């Protein structure tokens, strides 16, 4: 079957409030033959949009990403960007993933490096950092981000509110303006210029098994306590296996624990359900048999750990957790419905 060679691609753009531009980016994806736009996730408080594309032909998938990149870079300027979610560039992050049974991580890596070469060259001229199978040493995305200051908020550079079109606090955005360090000699890119264009920033580009983004809202204004909860559940903080986590402001009175579930085999199940702290192990976004065989924690384990840690810090029960993208089974179904070959 043709779909056995299916590849997926997540494209993260540092814009979540300009509805007209987001619709334009969606239209560009849909114009490329034999590429399906399987999901769009727009987060206004984070001022960030994730587009998920699927295709069986890597060249066509690359063409769709380049069309999105050209439009986003033409319309957006990192110097005027403000958000409560970290970012390194306008085209902030692109990840490629094998989805079909015969698709391989090497194919995803080849597509990533081909795309990176084009983004590094004119007319884009972006510094490109590879990770996962696209990098010779298998470097992790978190390492790049840590080296480039992704996790260090800089409220001082923002002079106003978050600018969200919905409810918003009046506090300055945690991330605003160009990258603090535009010269990249301390951590050179793998391709492209050795300095970050002030308006565009840099792009991280990788090839890895499918990653699920799972976010859980905490109803607190205590940033230190929320950060402690995030540390408690993360692998780096001695918590759950295969979990990356950080605490981010997400509107007034809400701080989210935003997690990447990087160690779990998400080959079955559905991402459509929210997961609450009272969910039993047979419900939610993970199939129980998949969870049992997982190499890392699943959403329900993360939900339970966050609820327990929040209680230890005197917080009320967290809100239902939710995923921001689709699972491989859902992406395969989207490809079928789109008639991909």
Automatic annotation (TrEMBL):
<feature type="compositionally biased region" description="Low complexity">
    <location>
        <begin position="188"/>
        <end position="197"/>
    </location>
</feature>
<feature type="region of interest" description="Disordered">
    <location>
        <begin position="268"/>
        <end position="294"/>
    </location>
</feature>
<feature type="compositionally biased region" description="Low complexity">
    <location>
        <begin position="270"/>
        <end position="294"/>
    </location>
</feature>
<dbReference type="InterPro" id="IPR051623">
    <property type="entry name" value="FTCD"/>
</dbReference>
<dbReference type="InterPro" id="IPR037064">
    <property type="entry name" value="Formiminotransferase_N_sf"/>
</dbReference>
<dbReference type="InterPro" id="IPR012886">
    <property type="entry name" value="Formiminotransferase_N"/>
</dbReference>
<dbReference type="GO" id="GO:0016740">
    <property type="term" value="F:transferase activity"/>
</dbReference>
<dbReference type="InterPro" id="IPR037070">
    <property type="entry name" value="Formiminotransferase_C_sf"/>
</dbReference>
<feature type="domain" description="Formiminotransferase N-terminal subdomain">
    <location>
        <begin position="5"/>
        <end position="209"/>
    </location>
</feature>
<protein>
    <recommendedName>
        <fullName>Formiminotransferase N-terminal subdomain domain-containing protein</fullName>
    </recommendedName>
</protein>
<dbReference type="Pfam" id="PF07837">
    <property type="entry name" value="FTCD_N"/>
</dbReference>
<feature type="region of interest" description="Disordered">
    <location>
        <begin position="153"/>
        <end position="197"/>
    </location>
</feature>
<dbReference type="GO" id="GO:0005542">
    <property type="term" value="F:folic acid binding"/>
</dbReference>
<feature type="compositionally biased region" description="Low complexity">
    <location>
        <begin position="155"/>
        <end position="171"/>
    </location>
</feature>
<dbReference type="InterPro" id="IPR022384">
    <property type="entry name" value="FormiminoTrfase_cat_dom_sf"/>
</dbReference>
């Amino acid at each position: 079957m043709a779909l056995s060679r299916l590849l997926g691609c997540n494209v993260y753009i540092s814009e979540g409030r300009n509805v007209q531009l987001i619709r334009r980016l969606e239209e560009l994806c849909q114009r490329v033959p034999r590429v399906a736009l399987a999901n769009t996730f727009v987060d206004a408080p984070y001022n960030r949009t994730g587009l998920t594309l699927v295709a069986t032909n890597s060249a066509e998938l690359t063409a769709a990403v380049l069309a999105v990149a050209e439009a986003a870079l033409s319309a957006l300027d990192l110097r005027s960007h403000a958000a409560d979610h970290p970012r390194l560039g306008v085209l902030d992050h692109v990840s490629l993933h094998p989805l079909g049974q015969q698709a391989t991580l090497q194919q995803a890596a080849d597509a990533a490096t081909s795309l990176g070469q084009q983004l590094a060259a004119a007319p884009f001229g972006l510094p490109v950092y590879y990770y996962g199978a696209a990098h010779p040493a298998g470097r992790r995305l978190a390492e790049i981000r840590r080296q480039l200051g992704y996790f260090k908020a800089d409220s001082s550079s923002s002079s106003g509110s978050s600018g969200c079109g919905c409810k918003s606090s009046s506090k300055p955005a945690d991330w605003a303006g160009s990258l603090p360090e535009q010269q990249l000699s301390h951590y050179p890119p793998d391709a492209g210029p050795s300095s970050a264009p002030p308006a565009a920033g840099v792009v991280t580009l990788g090839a890895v098994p499918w990653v699920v983004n799972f976010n859980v809202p905490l109803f607190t204004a205590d940033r230190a306590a929320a950060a402690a909860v995030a540390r408690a559940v993360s692998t780096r903080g001695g918590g759950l296996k295969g979990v990356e986590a950080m605490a981010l402001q997400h509107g007034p009175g809400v701080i989210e624990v935003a997690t990447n579930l990087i160690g779990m085999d998400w080959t079955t199940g559905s991402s459509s359900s929210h997961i609450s702290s009272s969910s039993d192990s047979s419900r939610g976004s993970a199939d129980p048999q998949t969870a049992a065989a997982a190499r890392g924690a699943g959403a329900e384990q993360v939900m339970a750990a966050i609820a327990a840690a929040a209680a230890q810090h005197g917080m009320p029960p967290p809100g239902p957790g939710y995923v921001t993208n689709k699972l491989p089974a859902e992406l395969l179904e989207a490809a079928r419905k789109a008639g991909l070959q």
